[in-house]
Write a sequence for this structure.
């Protein structure tokens, strides 16, 4: 009680000076490092007691002493409840030595990690973590300095220099040519269309006018559907069949529709009675630390596998052009370690695990290789079964997957062995989520993926992230450059993430350049 009182008192005292730039420079120094798989992170924590719940925009400067050493930067706000709000970014161009760039982000739109923190956790921020990421093979020293933090109740107006630069960059978009005959896909995370209109007629009109050929619409989750489903309950915030609405609008505007399902996950639209039923049936995941992960269904549970298979087959029979797997994976390497997973795994390997979960979880554990194969098999079983049945029962319906961008580690970290799915012909096309603000990094990523898929017959339509939840939206010039990189790589299409408020601004701008429709 005393700690909570002191925290509340401190927040009250600081409230008056909330928007002052009183946070000094924070320097992250190399070679201090901690392991992070194929990359390492170097970070510095500083006490930072603030109420950010009413802050619209945070701005700061970042100076890089050796830009070749780093590839991404993050700010975390750690809260009293154990939550972690992450903002990450990467400068669009490689920074020259000692160059400083200005960064802005919106705290309330950041992704939340950790405990059940929620947006309200921003009222109780107790620590700032500044972090720089680099490849695991980096050996040189360097520093990254975060400074000049400013906190704004409203989004600050751009300076004259910033406005002039924006005009110049927009003019450069017009220098890019359009292209006929390519496939242009776009994800929409809402079953209702663009949030500003919440209707499919205007949404599909914008998509078609921008020259897109395919819409991938999020119509189904692990615990609900936005259509008349016999497999999962209808979403609590949906009163009609949005699949039929979306399909009709797509037909009017000449678009192919791919029904997108977020696998294994129950979201806020999932009826609480259904979620509670899954919990009572012991069908949710448990972390390596023994913490229940409510809302994440365990992929090793045959009941959950059958649910995913049935839901995907049902979608394929709804008259759509394709079905789209998303989150067809584990949330991270630390899941699932429930008692049922242990029992099934020990049955698979034929003997008890001496040190659970250490022997399975750690890369040097004696059961780690078998554990990785076990997790991959749980996920692949669903993809393979769906693929075989759709090929037989719904010929002509395409199968696609939103794949993790790091194909080299996706299998070990997430149980998502999508390169094998492609080699086995289980999918028709793959959309790796190659979300980068640096076109050169995007180009290197798709070059490796193109080589990986050579000879499989599976199409590669890389994901271009124009607006993601934990780093700033990219502008039209960056998007144009990445579209151009996909074309230069010899690909015949790409996928945009995602249709929304930012897309409503960006797509008309891109129509003057790479999305020209002659």
């Amino acid at each position: 009680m005393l700690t909570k009182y002191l925290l509340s008192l401190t927040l009250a005292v600081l409230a008056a000076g909330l928007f002052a730039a009183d946070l000094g420079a924070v320097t992250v120094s190399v070679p201090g490092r901690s392991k992070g798989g194929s990359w390492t992170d170097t970070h510095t924590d500083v006490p930072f007691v603030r109420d950010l719940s009413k802050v619209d925009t945070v701005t700061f400067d970042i100076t890089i002493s050796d830009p070749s050493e780093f590839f991404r930067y993050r700010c975390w706000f750690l809260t009293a409840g154990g939550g972690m709000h992450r903002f990450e970014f990467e400068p669009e161009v490689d920074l020259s030595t000692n160059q400083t760039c200005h960064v802005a982000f919106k705290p309330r739109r950041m992704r939340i990690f950790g405990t059940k923190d929620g947006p309200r956790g921003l009222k109780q921020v107790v620590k700032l973590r500044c972090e720089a990421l680099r490849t695991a093979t980096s050996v040189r020293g360097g520093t990254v300095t975060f400074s000049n933090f400013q906190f704004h109740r409203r989004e600050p107006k751009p300076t004259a220099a910033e406005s002039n630069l924006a005009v110049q960059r927009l003019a450069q978009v017009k220098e890019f040519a359009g292209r006929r005959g390519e496939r242009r896909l776009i994800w929409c995370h809402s079953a209702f269309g663009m949030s500003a209109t919440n209707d499919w007629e205007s949404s599909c009109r914008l998509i078609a006018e921008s020259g897109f050929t395919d819409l991938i619409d999020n119509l189904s989750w692990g615990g609900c559907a936005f259509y008349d489903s016999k497999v999962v309950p209808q979403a609590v915030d949906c009163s009609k069949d949005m699949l039929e609405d979306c399909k009709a609008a797509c037909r009017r505007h000449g678009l192919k529709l791919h029904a997108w399902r977020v696998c294994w996950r129950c979201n806020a639209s999932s009826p609480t009675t259904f979620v509670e039923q899954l919990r009572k049936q012991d069908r949710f995941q448990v972390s390596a630390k023994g913490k229940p992960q409510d809302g994440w269904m365990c992929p090793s549970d045959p009941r959950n596998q059958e649910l995913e298979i049935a839901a995907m087959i049902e979608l394929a029979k709804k008259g759509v052009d394709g079905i789209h797997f998303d989150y067809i994976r584990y949330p991270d390497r630390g899941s699932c370690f429930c008692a049922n997973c242990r029992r099934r795994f020990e049955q698979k390997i034929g003997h008890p695990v001496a040190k659970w979960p250490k022997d399975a979880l750690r890369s040097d554990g004696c059961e780690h290789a078998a554990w990785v194969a076990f997790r991959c098999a749980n996920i692949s079983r669903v993809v393979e079964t769906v693929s075989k049945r759709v090929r037989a029962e719904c010929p002509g319906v395409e199968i696609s997957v939103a794949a993790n961008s790091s194909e080299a580690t996706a299998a070990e970290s997430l149980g998502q062995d999508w390169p094998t799915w492609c080699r086995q012909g289980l999918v028709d096309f793959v959309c790796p989520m190659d979300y980068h603000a640096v076109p050169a990094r995007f180009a290197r990523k798709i070059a490796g993926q193109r080589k990986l898929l050579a000879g499989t017959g599976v199409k590669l339509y890389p994901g271009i992230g124009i607006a993601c939840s934990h780093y700033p939206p990219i502008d039209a010039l960056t998007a144009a450059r990445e579209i151009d990189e996909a074309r230069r790589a010899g690909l015949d299409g790409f996928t945009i993430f995602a249709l929304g408020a930012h897309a409503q601004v960006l797509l008309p701008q891109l129509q003057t350049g790479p999305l020209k429709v002659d």
